[in-house]
Structure formats: structure tokens, C-alpha cells
UniProtKB/TrEMBL annotation:
<dbReference type="GO" id="GO:0035091">
    <property type="term" value="F:phosphatidylinositol binding"/>
</dbReference>
<dbReference type="GO" id="GO:0034727">
    <property type="term" value="P:piecemeal microautophagy of the nucleus"/>
</dbReference>
<dbReference type="GO" id="GO:0000407">
    <property type="term" value="C:phagophore assembly site"/>
</dbReference>
<keyword id="KW-0653">Protein transport</keyword>
<dbReference type="InterPro" id="IPR027267">
    <property type="entry name" value="AH/BAR_dom_sf"/>
</dbReference>
<dbReference type="GO" id="GO:0061709">
    <property type="term" value="P:reticulophagy"/>
</dbReference>
<dbReference type="Pfam" id="PF00787">
    <property type="entry name" value="PX"/>
</dbReference>
<dbReference type="GO" id="GO:0015031">
    <property type="term" value="P:protein transport"/>
</dbReference>
<protein>
    <submittedName>
        <fullName>SNX7 protein</fullName>
    </submittedName>
</protein>
<dbReference type="InterPro" id="IPR001683">
    <property type="entry name" value="PX_dom"/>
</dbReference>
<dbReference type="InterPro" id="IPR042131">
    <property type="entry name" value="BAR_SNX7"/>
</dbReference>
<keyword id="KW-0813">Transport</keyword>
<feature type="domain" description="PX">
    <location>
        <begin position="34"/>
        <end position="155"/>
    </location>
</feature>
<dbReference type="GO" id="GO:0000422">
    <property type="term" value="P:autophagy of mitochondrion"/>
</dbReference>
<dbReference type="InterPro" id="IPR042130">
    <property type="entry name" value="PX_SNX7"/>
</dbReference>
<dbReference type="GO" id="GO:0032456">
    <property type="term" value="P:endocytic recycling"/>
</dbReference>
<dbReference type="GO" id="GO:0005769">
    <property type="term" value="C:early endosome"/>
</dbReference>
Amino acid sequence: DTSLAEVNSFSPSMPISPASMINQYKFEDEPEIRDLFITVDDPESHITAIETFITYRVVTKTSRGEFDSSEYEVRRRYQDFLWLKSKLEEAHPTLIIPPLPEKFIMKGMVERFSDEFIETRRKALHKFLNRIADHPTLTFNEDFKIFLTAQAWELSSHKKQGPSLLSRMGQTVRAVASSVRGGVKNRPEMFTEMNDYMETFSQKINVLDKIAHRIYKEEKEYFNEMKEYGPIHTLWSASEEDIADSLKGVASCIDKCCKATEKRMAGLSENLLPILHEYVLYSEILMGVLKRRDQIQGELDSKVDALANKRTEKDLFSEEIGKLEDKVECANNALKADWDRWKQNMHCDMRSTFTNVAENNLRYYEECLATWESFLASQTANLHVEEDSEDRP
């Protein structure tokens, strides 16, 4: 064991920053060899008489035998990603489907179709597909394969074979109606604990997300003021010959700190904000998954109650109850496995994100401190030179 004093020493053998410390961690579960690589890039604007939209190039490279080729390149728009997500939810109602970025963004953050918005969405769509590719079950979904390989007209034709919008709406209405009828009688304790955990997690992650956005907004305001603050000292130096060098030095320090602040803001917008918001969306998805599991449990409970009350013949519903019991068991097992996997990924993401923030903050304050210390040292040296010259006869 190493003491805190030893860790904080400048021994070359000891890690001295979060960036070097994170490399010391050894995770128990090493990732398996991947056989599916997906890239989302090259956003392209399309303007028609009806609408304006963006398409993204999706490049897939794979060594899987079920694919006819080892490489595919297609273009997809946001609505295609929404279709894929809905098909995955339909096929796997008790698995945790990765979130997509919302169709509409938060007002005041970035403008729609701006370069910043398009790049933020591209990164989110890239992560969405790669999270599916890394999932042990979702990665083999047939609709996912079609999404990656089919040309635009083939995908459009395939979409028309799915359930209609009214059918999907009907399923949603039934699910909501079932969830508000009351709590599930025979819900296993494990899923009650999951539900309680997610309620707390949702509350905490939403607070973190709001505070992070507020910090970013305040940092941006501070940055904009600093950009105006530095040049004022430069202009002032033109009319103050005796302190011109000092004023120019202050202006230079402010300019360096301004650039450091800009880097820090980039770190927040690229690393912290997207991860926090992704898990805000995950919290909503998980609450939905738990409700769908409860719906399946509720169907089984209602059939068992009907049989117990002798409102129906035993032979008529015994087979149906057996099928529902199998369905509940499959749903429970799927959710248990996905829950453990999600928590492990979440802990890894949060640890990496907050370590990144700590490293960025450390680098920012060290850079600013070094800038001002250098300025103070130069001013002290100049002051000594002036004092020596005054003492000479």
C-alpha cells in the first residue's frame, strides 16, 4: 500500500495525474474480439420542396458469415434510426435499447442544422449503432442487419412490411393502460429494487445534467467577457508609457487564460454533457423496460386470478397460462442479464467521464496558474532592476 504523501511525491514511478492513474486500472471483463465495425460520418444536407434533412454515411465492416459481403456503405437519415430503434423495442421489449438523440434539441444550446448540431448528432448516432453492435443479442437482430446493408429503396420497401402506425399506437395505449391499473401483485423483489434504484438514479442524473448545462452556460459567459477584457489592457497601454509593459503582460495572460478556458469548454461539451444526457435518456428507457416487464407479469397474474375465481374453464386457459409463464421467465432473464451489463457499462462510462473532467480541470488551473506566476516573476525581476538602478550614485 502506498501512502497519500508518497502518491503526491514527484517520484517518476508514481502516477501524478488522473490521466496516468486511469491507465493503472485493470478491468475484470476484457472485451471480446469484435467482428462488426460501424462508422457514422460524412453528413450531407438535402433540400427539397417539402423538407430539409441530413443524411449520414454508415460504413460497416464485418467478418460474420451471415453477411453477404465484408463491407457495406449506405446513407441513412434520422428517421431511419428512429425506425430501427422502434423495431428493436418491438422485437426485444425487455432489453435495454440504447438511446437516440432527441429530434429537437434544447433551446439556446445550438441551432438546428448548424455545424455544431450536426456533429453532435453524428457522434450520438455513431455511438447508438456501436452500442447495438456490442450488445450480445441486439447485434444479431435481422432489422439491424437490414439497416446496415440495404440500399435506400430496399429499406423503404422493408419498412412498409412492418406494423402500421395505428397498430404501434394501439400497442402503446394498451401498455400504458396496463401500467396504470395498479401495481403488479407478484412482482419479484429484484425488480422492485430495480425500480427503486432507477427512480433515485433518474432524479440524480437529471440534477447533474441540469447543473452541468448551467456550468457550461456560465463558463461561456465568462469566456465571452474575457475576450473583451484582454484587449482593453492593450488599448490602455498605448496611453500609459510608464506601465505599458505591465499592461501588455496582463493582456497576454488574459489571452492565454481565455484560450485555456475555451479548451475547458470544449472538454465539457464533448465529454461531460453528452454522457450525462445519454444517461438521462437511459433512465427513461429503463423505466419503460420495467413497465413492459410488469405488463407481461400483469397478464399472467390476471389469467391466474381468473382461473382461481373459476370464471373460466381450467383446460381453456391452462395452455395460455403456461405460455405466459414462459414469457415472464424469458422477460425476467433477459432483463436481469441486460441490467447487470448496463450497470457495468454505466459505472465505466461515469468513471471515465469524471476522471476526464478532473484531468481537464487540473490542466486548466495549472496552465492559468503558470501563466500568472510567470507574469509575477517577470514583474518582480523588473522591480529589482529598477531599485538597483535608483540606488546607484
